[in-house]
Amino acid sequence: AADKIRLIPQDFFAELCEQIIQHLNHKIPGVNTAELCQRIQTSGVDINIGDLAKVANTLSFLFSTAARNNLSTEELVTTLGSGISTLPKHAVQVIRHVWNEQGKAIAVSEDAGNTATVGQFVDMKWKLGVAMSSDTCRSLKYPYVTVTLTVADPSGQITDKSFEMTIPQFKNFFSQFKEMASVLETV
Q1: Neighbours of 115 (CB within 10 A)
Q2: Cα(181)–Cα(162) distance, integer angstroms
Q3: For residue 4, which of 25, 51, 148, 168 is within the disulfide window of CB 3.0 to 4.6 Å?
Q4: pTM of whole model > 0.70?
């Protein structure tokens, strides 16, 4: 991960660290690595989303482990310096600053046991479509609903999951949501 961190400009690395801290503090559902990766690539840096996701997971592990062990800023920086592959100076400076500013808040939330072990629902979008024809059938006129769920996995990576349903399947899906809503109102 240290080799990939060297590629990331300091301002983007700082933004990534901030988002990870916010995720660990449960202020945002996750880190949108796809959007951040696109912005980094637009700035002229050759990094792919898989590498950026690995960096994000490494930083998330670093911050959550430091919180669990209640490390001070100096203890964290000393630990980083004693690693096998050393981090670039700009990365250590950013980590020091972010941990110094917001590290205690993570320690509080970690101690409270607020970490999620499953993904978190972020957003849902849907659209109604009609398949008019295909190579094998001239007249389909088949309505369908496309649903896109935006989900943050436990490490904070935000992904979209899409699927299509027939109208009867969508009606069943909708009735299940209504049932969940009525149960939630009783709580």
Answers
A1: 13
A2: 22
A3: 51
A4: no
